[in-house]
Amino acid sequence: MKTIHVLLCACTSLGMLAQATQSQDQTSPIAEPQHLSRETASPELGNSSLIRIPSGRLAIIADGNSPDPDDIGATAVTIGLLHASGANDRLVHLSHSCDLKPTTRIPVADELRRQQVMARVCHEGINHFGPFKNLVACFNCRTERDATVTNLRDAINRSSKADPLWIIEAGEPDIIGFALQAANPSKRQFTHVVSHHAANDNAGDFFSWQQILDFGVVEHQIGDQNVGLQSKMQPWHWAKTHSDPRIQWIWNQLAYAEQDGVVKFQTGKFDCSDAGMLYWWITGASNGGNNQASPSDIKAMLSRVQPHDL
Hints:
Order of helices and strands: EHEHEHEHEHHEHEHHEHH
Oligomer: single chain
Radius of gyration: 17 Å
Shape: globular
Number of helices: 11
Structural class: alpha/beta
Strand content: 5-15%
Strand order of the largest sheet: 3-2-1-4-5-6
């Protein structure tokens, strides 16, 4: 298997996150990035044989503004999983709405609404499960493309063999392509791109998947996560009634996506399939990570969130 780790998830800038209808033209600072190369378990959450996070940092690029609304719930689950696994400090890039040329299959008004919803989800998720001290900002790829690419490029340029960058590809690959194109060629070999579906890989408007690979990244194709993580709603009922309001919040985002209405195939389903890439990374990545996660696996991980974190 090739060795590129890319974790993509859609997220907008924090400057518009307080209200879903606020302006999206500026990024909001979070913190100055810090160098991290080795896993350390969160003392609050304790150690677990289930958690085997590899060395390196994490970038998540999602869409959410494409016809399928799944990234709304998946991004909420992803942020919760980062906290539950003690991996907040690994996250150095978060962006959303990475469908840079939205298809006519999503009306213009709905595409704009999705950008705002993704901004809200990112903002609320960071507030619920933070702090994320190495996250400088959350970017809207549609309205802040240059800033998004620059931030991801800089994360790539800080990479080394001991401290690689893992990119979760939770949407179209174009932002990744632009960042790799602008990055120091000698650093691209330390960039891992994680994918689970050709629907993302082959949806680029500016870069084909082969062009992404030709940059020399390490590719990880972990298999279609829809198989286990696009499920009926019932396996998530525990979250709806959970005593922790942050877990209830995750349920609410999954429910919003189910009721979104732009596409019909998500009706009656909760889909956090893109979060399966993060679960694979948390549980070992290319060293035996679980690429067959189910809602019960996600529940077990999220159940590590402790009430005293409130």
